[in-house]
Specification:
This protein has one domain. It has six helices and no strands.
Amino acid sequence: MASINGYEIVLLVTSIATALTIYLTTRKRRIEKKSEKVLDTETIEREALSLLPVKNEKNIKILNLEKEIQNFVETRLLEAETKGKISHVDRMRLVKKYNLEIQHLDQKVSNRAIIFQKQEYEPTQELENIFQKKFNEINDTVNNIKNHLENLPKEEIKESVKLPMDVLHVQQKGQTIKKKATDKKKKRQKSKSEKRIENIQDEVLKIIAQIEQIEMEG
């Protein structure tokens, strides 16, 4: 297993903290946005109508028109009873029939809205699953680092943490240092680890950016 120093741990923890901060902020904003949308049935139907594809928009309009017709019929039945054209029993029987039809129409509208919401949020769910997978990979990496550090002597850990400051001091002085073969190997390993951590962070940030883009478009 490649040697891992304290500097790499700092990079990894910073990467995780940055990704989590952005993700949690995004989740909070999405939850707040959903909590604000406590709407009545008619408002939900209008939203569904404006968001559904054109091929479903016509179906929703027809369903709403049918509901208007049913409501108009109920009003006419009440007027007919008032004028003595039909009995109260007959009116209630017909009203019950039309109420069942209206409930059926309401269910159709609701089902179409649910189908649309499912289609809308599926891409976001997929991106969240990818993020969760990447986050699990980061957790595994952190656990591997912890296990590795438990087996390292304390002196070696302290020396690894001091290494970046020593290198910075040498660069500022402009001195030329001849590294041993083992030091060069450690430097190469450190660069490779940093690159791997940066790649993980970039992937996580890209996923979060895609989630935010979908929310903005929605």
